[in-house]
Amino acid sequence: MVDELGTTIGYLLGETAQINILKNPEMLHRLNEIEDLPEEDKAHILYTIDGLVRDAKTRKAYSK
C-alpha cells in the first residue's frame, strides 16, 4: 500500500513532513547497518556523513 501511495509509513503517521525520507530501500539498508554498530563506530560514521553533507550544501550554495 505504501508503494502505491508513493510515500513512507513515517509520513503517513505524521512522524515527518518529508514525504521521501527513508523511501529508498538501499539507504534504509545502510542506515540499519549503521544502527547495528557499536556506539563509537556510529558516532564516527555520522560525524563523517555530517561533514560530507555540510560540504555538499556549501558547494551547492556557491554554485548558484
Description:
This protein is mainly α. The chain is built from four helices and no strands. The protein has helices at residues 2-5, 9-12, 25-35, 39-62. The termini are far apart. The mean pLDDT is 81.
Topology:
Blueprint (H helix, E strand, L loop, with lengths): L1 H4 L3 H4 L12 H11 L3 H24 L2
Briefly, what is this?
It contains four helices and no strands.
Overall body shape: flat
> Portion of residues in helices?
55-70%
Mean pLDDT: 81
Structural class per helix/strand content?
A: mainly alpha
Q: What is the CA–CA distance across the termini? A: 39 Å
Index terms:
4 helices, 64 residues, mainly alpha
